[in-house]
Amino acid sequence: MINKSLALTILSCASAAFALPCFAQTSVSSTRVTSPSTAIWVDSLDVTRFEQDYGSPQANKSNGGRPITIDGVVYQHGVGTHSNGKAQIDLGGEAARFMSYVGIDDERKTSTKASVQFIIKVDGVQKAESDTMRGGMPAEELSVDLTGAKTLELDVTDAGDGIVDDHADWADAEITMAAGQTYQPTTVDLEAVFNTPARINPLDDIGAPAIHGATIVGTTPGRPFLFLIPTTGDAPMAFSSKHLPSGLVLDKNTGIITGSLKKAGTYKVNIAVKNTIWNASEVLTIVGGQHKLALTPPMGWNSWNVFAGNVTEQNVKDAAQVMIDQKLAGHGYEYVNIDDTWEAGRDKDGNILANSKFPDMKALADSVHAKGLHIGLYSSPGPTTCAGYTASYQHEQQDANTYAEWGFDYLKYDWCSYGQIANGDNSIPAFQKPYQVMRTALDNSSRDIVYSLCQYGMGDVWKWGADPTVGGNCWRTTGDIRDTWGSMYGILEQQAGHEVYGGPGHWNDPDMLVLGSVGWGSEHPTHLHPNEQLVHFSMWCMLSAPLLIGCDMTHLDDLTREILTNDEVIAIDQDPLGKPASQIQKLPDNGGEIWARPLADGSTAVALLNPADHIQTLTATWNQLGLKGTQDVRDLWLHMDYDAQPTNFAADVPAHGIVLIKVTGSKPQKAAHISSPYSGIVMNHT
């Protein structure tokens, strides 16, 4: 089908960020000819409706805007895309066949990170897939029968290793129509398909006091302790406590507990709050001992997903203030974390310095602590950070001491340039070594610092991150998240099976939240559609993941605020039993998933997840969940109780949507299929 002729293609260099490599090569051209009466080039359709995690889809060009080229062959037709990508084409039942050559574009030919897989689905059923395609590999031909098909779906995945350099080409992609048919295929507007109202009912704030968030907290005796009782309600409120251990003091006006625990042990503290409307109480467990931090997953904010390298001291102060003013702290969010680009080399004694964006780190930490919140920082075990700033290699104890002196409470420790030091050694001891060094340094400092290992899941970190010599409080299990369904759902699917390694004090971390206004230095509303946002937050809570908000806190929209402050859902994440969810069922062809986790009160949290592009009825049976007898069911997003169910629970779940329920034993009643009305919130996208 290809008439190859020799051509010399000289591709120019680029020097900007994410630049294409400079190369010149001898190429051959594809000049495949098709009959206009029977075949349609896919690039003639509206390719702007292709969705992808980075860049924009290009007709007849690569993702980088160059001639489509795979292993030296230049193609005159095709669509240049990027993982994770998706396109859906309406065929009207009149097509006969689809064919394309697929591969990594030569503009990423030499990249060791470029890897994708192409998948073709017909009417929602997978019909073909490529091998894992890497840079420099020849194109692979994919062809499927379309006889009678209504829809064709073209997917590109990141092959499980992140999206970096995944420039994926659908080269010479064409749809052959059935003989005598005149229907014109069209690309489906996926934005319209998924941008439906979120399946959520907001709760009215009646002003009565309520205590939320974690009911257990850990500390090291002799080190500074800080805990803001997470409370909502109308001010003024008055706080009180009984059985507060020696060394700790409660501020009755602010609800902030400070001091230093004198002795190790487990203490049950009765805390109460009241205002003119009502009063509330809770039992707070304080655990004193070595390595007792993060007994529930950390909650807070991190600067990277919105500001990236543009973060400033003012951004951090604003985030802390909004956390108080918008009552996020009252729902349990407590950490305000600075990511990369704060560093400015070292002084003559080797002490780490902050740059002009952060003129006084200790004063900044003090201001955050004054609100009852904690503050976090970022570094790397290598010579430089991911953004090229000064890191901690050979200065680990100095840096740990400095962080403690400044007053920091959280450290994200990012692998990055340590790869130079490891020099290709991919053994488990090599992966552990830099994190063991910093663990020792933190132990020898004067402050409790939550330790977050950021090395993207290398060497199955979930299997050894909690080793006492490493002492991670949480560890990244994947590459960086982006604000797309493909990225978020792809990360979620990698978490099944990891749950056995997470628990109190040591958590799997599938990366930060991409809700609200994000953008990595170029701010925009999240590209996740409303129900996708519910999936994101619900499943991170089901997984016992750290809940680190990644948006601009000064631009919180209504939907983001409603999601982030749903206390019934947060309680799943913060459940003191600390048992992350397991994937109980995954039906083929995007038929739906059931996830479940046990809770400390004896109930079970269950997620009915629909990854398909159409509404589906999903059913969770008590038998598959290991439950016996009739069960009460509460919907955690609709805040609705259903009649007790004797054998199962069924619900209509929106496309790319979720139903999250809590199941508790009850008396028998008649079963019911649930398809309840709700008042939705729609987040406008720009």
Report what the structure shows.
The structure is a single chain. This protein is of the alpha+beta class. The protein folds into four domains: 4-188, Jelly Rolls (Sandwich), CATH 2.60.120.1060; 215-288, Immunoglobulin-like (Sandwich), CATH 2.60.40.10; 299-573, TIM Barrel, CATH 3.20.20; 582-674, Immunoglobulin-like (Sandwich). 14% of the residues lie in helices and 34% in strands. The chain has eleven helices and 47 strands. Helix 8 runs parallel beside helix 9, helix 9 (530-542) runs parallel beside helix 10 and helix 9 packs parallel to helix 11. The longest helix is centred in the middle third of the chain and has 16 residues, at 428-443. The protein starts with a strand and ends in a 12-residue tail after the last strand.
What proportion strand?
25-35%
Radius of gyration: 27 Å
Distance between the termini: 43 Å
Helix proportion: 10-25%
Extended strand count: 47
The CATH homologous superfamily of the largest domain corresponds to Aldolase class I
Alpha-beta classification: alpha+beta
Tertiary shape: globular
Q: Main sheet?
A: 8 strands, parallel
Question: How is the CATH topology of the largest domain named?
Answer: TIM Barrel
What's the pLDDT, averaged over the residues?
A: 91
